[in-house]
């Protein structure tokens, strides 16, 4: 079996260290001091330690002066529950900083809120609820359009400050408030901040953990309760720590890293656990790549994923938020359920074969798999840097794609970047120009698109049993439409390379 081959070939770069009931200690060669100590030394001066709302007494969990060492996730939950410390397995009431919902789950959440709190009840804080239509937007489906109408009426009734509405479905550019995919929009609009708690009615809300916050998906019932009270009862998860060291090869992206991890621990390996990512390789990642890493922790069953905030985080947030935030970091002797060490320099481009994100294989091992299409988009693979990566492959090849290649920017800002941002080394060409020359479809309106399938008229939806290489996050039967469709999850590098050949292709065939 391919899986057994992969497992044996990856043992030199993936080492698991089990917890024995004592605090975990990382060998000197794998210590990632810069994630713990250096980050503390380099905080921008404008970031100060505050609490919102103000408290008369700063609790030890917010200052780091604790009697019991804690992980990042434990510290955030201790602060949010106004406790000096918490332990894994403990149930705590947390104060939520941001609640997000969208057009799929928003109507259900609103219905529960009104049923339990009353038809005339007011939400707990109109400025802490973010509502983003994004999933089933550009469709003639009446019920999908009705969902957005429900959101619009509720936001007007409650005077919700952050409602990113879309009224003209024929031209998204005519909608100045419309953003696109919720998880990327949350980051771009400054709703993701270190040390906070962000909950959303979407499983990929964990995307925001890239900012050093606790971010997790919740159901409509829980969201309805948060909408009315600003609180949620959560169980403190134990933490798995992933130490990613080594220099990232030029042909690898964060998508390869998370596929490696999920393939190693399986789709159930992090069930209701926090996944913390540290190490020199993580520090070298951009914010968008860190988002990709955290975005797919739920594919391993993770409750949340988290990356320590550092100068990269602070630079990204400049000009995006005026809310002061207070980052936290895992203590050196914090207790981790398990630790994993990965030398990323030894990894190869990967794919997840149908029909599970942990069905890992090397891209080069699937070179005989003929494909029908390529899809580049979603919260996982539709960010600006994802398209820049794909454009780099097309530019290096100088060839045209051999299968239909669909491009769905995550947000309106990403769409504009495709037409305005020059690709390095292209002689001044933009992504859109390179995509046009390669024969790709014109970039579509920003949305979740076909990632979740959606109504039959959804752009690029698989209405027939096709084979697709996709930068999305799930490849379950029916995920992108047809239940007999086959989806190979891959990085934008691998997706673009596959588009050029019509087969699953290792991007090293085009990138040197």
Structural account:
This protein is of the alpha/beta class and 512 residues long. The chain has 17 helices and 18 strands. It has helices at residues 2-9, 33-41, 60-63, 72-80, 106-117, 142-158, 182-188, 220-229, 254-265, 280-284, 287-295, 311-317, 378-381, 384-397, 412-420, 431-438, 492-501, and strands at residues 14-18, 91-95, 98-102, 129-132, 162-163, 197-200, 214-217, 231-235, 239-245, 274-278, 304-306, 338-343, 350-352, 360-362, 373-377, 405-408, 467-470, 486-490. Strand 3 (98-102), helix 5 (106-117) and strand 4 form a beta-alpha-beta unit. Helix 5 packs across helix 8. It is globular. The two termini are 30 Å apart. 54% of the residues are buried. The model is unreliable at 1-63 (pLDDT under 50).
- Can you give the mean pLDDT? 90
Assess the beta-strand content as a share of residues: 15-25%
Q: How big is the Rg?
A: 22 Å
Q: Taking strands numbered 1, 2, ... along the chain, how are they ordered across the largest sheet?
A: 14-13-18-17-15-16
How far is it from the N-terminal to the C-terminal residue, by CA? Answer: 30 Å
Biggest sheet record:
6 strands, mixed
Helix content: 25-40%
Individual helix count: 17
What is the structural class?
Answer: alpha/beta
Shape: globular
| Strand runs, count | 18
Which stretches are low in confidence, meaning pLDDT under 50 for 5 or more residues running? 1-63
């Amino acid at each position: 079996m391919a899986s057994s081959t992969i497992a044996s070939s990856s043992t030199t770069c993936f080492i698991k260290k089990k917890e024995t009931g004592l605090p975990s200690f990382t060998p000197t060669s794998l210590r990632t001091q810069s994630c713990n100590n250096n980050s503390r030394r380099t905080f921008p001066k404008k970031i100060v330690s505050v609490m919102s709302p103000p408290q008369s007494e700063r609790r030890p969990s917010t200052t780091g002066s604790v009697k019991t060492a804690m992980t990042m996730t434990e510290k955030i939950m201790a602060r949010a529950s106004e406790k000096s410390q918490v332990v894994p397995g403990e149930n705590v009431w947390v104060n939520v900083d941001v609640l997000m919902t969208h057009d799929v789950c928003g109507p259900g959440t609103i219905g529960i809120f009104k049923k339990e709190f009353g038809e005339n009840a007011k939400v707990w804080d109109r400025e802490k609820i973010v509502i983003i239509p994004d999933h089933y937007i550009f469709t003639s489906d009446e019920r999908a359009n009705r969902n957005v109408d429900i959101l619009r009426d509720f936001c007007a009734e409650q005077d919700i400050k952050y409602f990113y509405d879309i009224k003209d479905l024929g031209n998204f550019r005519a909608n100045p408030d419309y953003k696109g995919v919720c998880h990327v929009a949350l980051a771009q609009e400054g709703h993701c901040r270190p040390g906070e708690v962000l909950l959303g009615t979407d499983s990929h809300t964990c995307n925001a953990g890239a900012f050093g916050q606790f971010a997790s998906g919740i159901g409509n019932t829980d969201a309805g309760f948060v909408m009315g009270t600003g609180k949620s009862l959560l169980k403190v998860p134990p933490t798995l720590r992933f130490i990613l060291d080594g220099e990232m090869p030029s042909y690898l992206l964060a998508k390869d890293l998370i596929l490696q991890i999920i393939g190693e621990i399986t789709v159930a390996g992090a069930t209701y656990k926090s996944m913390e990512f540290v190490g020199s390789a993580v520090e070298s990642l951009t914010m968008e790549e860190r988002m990709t890493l955290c975005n797919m922790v739920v594919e391993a069953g993770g409750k949340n994923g988290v990356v320590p905030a550092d100068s990269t985080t602070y630079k990204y947030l400049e000009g995006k938020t005026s809310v002061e935030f207070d980052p936290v970091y895992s203590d050196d002797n914090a207790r981790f359920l398990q630790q994993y060490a990965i030398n990323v320099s030894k990894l190869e481009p990967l794919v997840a074969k149908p029909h599970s994100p942990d069905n890992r294989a090397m891209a080069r091992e699937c070179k005989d798999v003929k494909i029908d299409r390529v899809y580049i988009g979603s919260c996982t693979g539709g960010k600006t840097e994802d398209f820049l990566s794909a454009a780099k492959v097309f530019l290096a090849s100088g060839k045209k794609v051999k299968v239909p290649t669909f491009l769905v920017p995550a947000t309106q800002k990403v769409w504009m970047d495709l037409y305005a941002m020059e690709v390095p080394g292209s002689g001044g060409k933009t992504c859109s120009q390179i995509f046009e020359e390669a024969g790709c479809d014109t970039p579509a309106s920003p949305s979740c698109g076909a990632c979740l399938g959606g109504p039959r008229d959804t752009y690029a939806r698989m209405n027939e049993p096709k084979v697709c290489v996709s930068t999305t996050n799930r490849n379950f039967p029916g995920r992108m439409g047809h239940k007999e469709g086959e989806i190979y999850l891959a990085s934008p590098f691998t997706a673009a390379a596959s588009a050029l050949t019509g087969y699953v292709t290792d991007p090293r065939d085009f990138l040197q």
